Amino acid sequence: MAAVEVPANLQLTAVDGQTRTMDEWLITFQMLGVVLDPFTYESSWILETAGRVLENYRGASVRSCFIVTGTIEEAKQFCGPWVDRVLVYADPDRAFVKAAELEALPALFHLRQNRQFGGIAQGWQPEDWRALTHQVARERRWSHPVIPAAGDPAAYQGSPALGSPV
Questions:
Q1: pTM
Q2: Domain extents for the chain?
Q3: What's the angle, vertex CA 13, arms to CA 4 and CA 62, rounded to 5?
């Protein structure tokens, strides 16, 4: 089971080098994000789909983002052109993953300005992602993306959120 909220002092670093606490990142907008592990097939399979889903909320009163469990350079390399289209954070120590108590990646999450989760969908389960994005669309009075869409992968459980044991 995932966490109810994240700590106020939890820090995230954007790939442009800006580091801020969750309270600072959430000061203006809620957050809708996808957590990805750049070292797994499971996350690479969903990158384009996740980007499409996040881009749907461009212009909505929600900050769309990727949180990548790697360094800034690894996040840039993994996300490629998405770093110019969606906000990307690096989480090399998986601090966000631990604070959110995630079990599987990829994970779609909605984080409200009070740092409480509006919902989390772990792994790629299109029905769960669809339900969560519909909820965000209703709350933000925005359109929702089509999930699944042509070309999206088949459902899968995802990989361990804390990475594989070394």
A1: 0.96
A2: 11-143
A3: 55
d(CA 65, CA 38): 15
Task: Please write down the long-range contacts of 98-103, taking CB distance under 8 Å and 24 or more positions apart.
Answer: 98/162, 99/3, 99/6, 99/7, 99/10, 100/2, 100/3, 100/6, 100/35, 101/1, 101/2, 101/3, 102/2, 102/35, 102/161, 103/2, 103/160, 103/161
Count of residues in the chain: 166
The answer regarding whether domain 11-143 maps to CATH 3.40.30.10 reads yes
Per-residue pLDDT of the chain (166 residues; tens, 9 = 90+): 577 999 999 999 999 999 999 999 999 999 999 999 999 999 999 999 999 999 999 999 999 999 999 999 999 999 999 999 999 999 999 999 999 999 999 999 999 999 999 999 999 999 999 999 999 999 999 999 999 999 999 999 999 999 865 4
